């Protein structure tokens, strides 16, 4: 007899992040009860002993071994297909839930049936804020970002966020993939992540599709979790990560802004990416 459907499924994709993954899982089992939940770990062919650690120390977790590095989208889609919860949370392996954070996110969605996705405030381990909840990217803003204009003109960077107060709740266009709580009904309606995005921009693309389907997306400044920031990406190496970012950026703008928009962003992004790779290799 199949056990009762959990209220929430937590999907975690891991690639060579064993120690971070252990802390992430410890935070789930410490903070999720009394909610009914299931934990699904998708291991993207790690070689650091992550699967053995999960099987040994967290036997209640569902472990899916992909057999290959499927990236963020492919790995999460394996977990999404297996998830049975009314709500599904995509959570990075370098993130840790805090006491009551998942319960409060669910409570917010229960009281706002038109909200399809929520995400929390992200706090680095050193206590600094990671800004979350932004507007959808435009060709002009993306080019300015690629050229690092916001670094010298902060007002330009703030245009992409549309607000300065990240302690309050707000309707937003998209959320960071580090922690996304989504209704099962939304997933059934809009589909899974687009697996053409190996890493980067898959979260923006998914949010765009969710909003286009008529759902609200909300940033919850009242809820905080810990996030280590791009630990799996760091293991790819800086040059490779930049190359993946460039490919995903071009794909996103071709998909949503047409061939011309994609070509313009790709031209500028590609030039900056090549310059970065050249500088990095000379070091």
Name its key features.
alpha/beta, 20% strand, globular, 283 residues, 46% helix, Spore Coat Polysaccharide Biosynthesis Protein SpsA, Chain A
Descriptive account of the structure:
By secondary structure, this protein is an alpha/beta fold. The chain has a domain at 8-131 and 166-230: Spore Coat Polysaccharide Biosynthesis Protein SpsA, Chain A (Alpha-Beta Complex). The protein has eleven helices and ten strands. The protein has helices at residues 18-31, 50-57, 71-82, 101-111, 139-146, 149-152, 154-158, 184-190, 202-212, 231-236, 238-282, and strands spanning 8-14, 37-43, 62-65, 87-92, 95-96, 115-123, 129-130, 170-171, 179-183, 216-227. Helix 1 (18-31) packs parallel to helix 2 and helix 5 (139-146) crosses helix 11. It is globular. It starts with 7 loop residues before the first strand and ends with a helix. The mean pLDDT is 92.
The CATH topology of the domain at 8-131 and 166-230 is given as Spore Coat Polysaccharide Biosynthesis Protein SpsA, Chain A
Level of helix content? 40-55%
Q: Which band does the percent of strand residues land in? A: 15-25%
Give me the number of helical elements: 11
- Fourth-tier CATH superfamily name of the domain at 8-131 and 166-230: Spore Coat Polysaccharide Biosynthesis Protein SpsA, Chain A
